Input
Amino acid sequence: MKLGNLVPPKRTELWEEVLVALRDAIVTRELSPGTRLVESELARTLNVSRWPVRQAIARLEQEDLVVRYPNRGTYVVEFSSDDVNEIFALRVLLEGHAAREACRRMNPEHEAKLRALVIETESLAERGIAAETISPDIAFHRGIFDVAGSQRLQGLWDTLTAPLNAMLHIKTARQDARYIRNVARIHGGLLEALCSGDPDQAEAAVLRELEGTRKSLLKYLGSTPE
Output
C-alpha cells in the first residue's frame, strides 16, 4: 500500500494540550491581564496533574505571555495602550533607519533570505495556522537589521523582542487565513520596497506596516488608536 505524500497526524503530549488551553484563555482574556496562575488550581480546573501545567506555564513564560516574579508567583502579562505606543514609537525610530540602510545594502542573497520568510508565511496561510506566523514575522523584521549591517542597531531592536512577541501572540491568536495572507502580502510589498534602491520608499513601507499593527493592537485592547 503506497501512502504517497500522506503525512502522519502530529502526536501531542498532555502538556501541549494544556499549553493550547492556557494560551487561548490568555489571548481571549478569559484569564485577564494580571491574573495569578496557581498550578494547583489550574490542574484541578483542567483535570490534569500539576506537572503538565508546570511545563505549559514554562513555555508561556518563554513566549512572554506570563511573567514570573521571585517569591510572588506567575502572572498573566499586562499591556496598556501606553505600552503599545511606546514599543511602536521605538520600532518606528529603529526600523525606519534600518530600512533605509538595508535598502542601500540589499543584494540577491539578502533578498532570497527575506523572500523565503514571505513564502513560509504564505504556506502557513494555506494551512490556516495563524499562531505560527509570529516566528517568521519577527524573523522578517529582524532580517532587515541583518541586511542593514549594524550590530548596535540590531542589539537595540532585540531588546523589544520579548514584549513584541507577546503582543503579536495576543493579536494573532484569533486571526484567520485571510489575515495571514495579508501579512505575507504586506511583507512581499515591503521586500519590493527594500529592493527598490529608494531609501525613502523603503522607510515609508516599514512605517505603514508598523502603524497598521499598532492600531490593530490598540483596537484589541479596547483603546482608540491615536
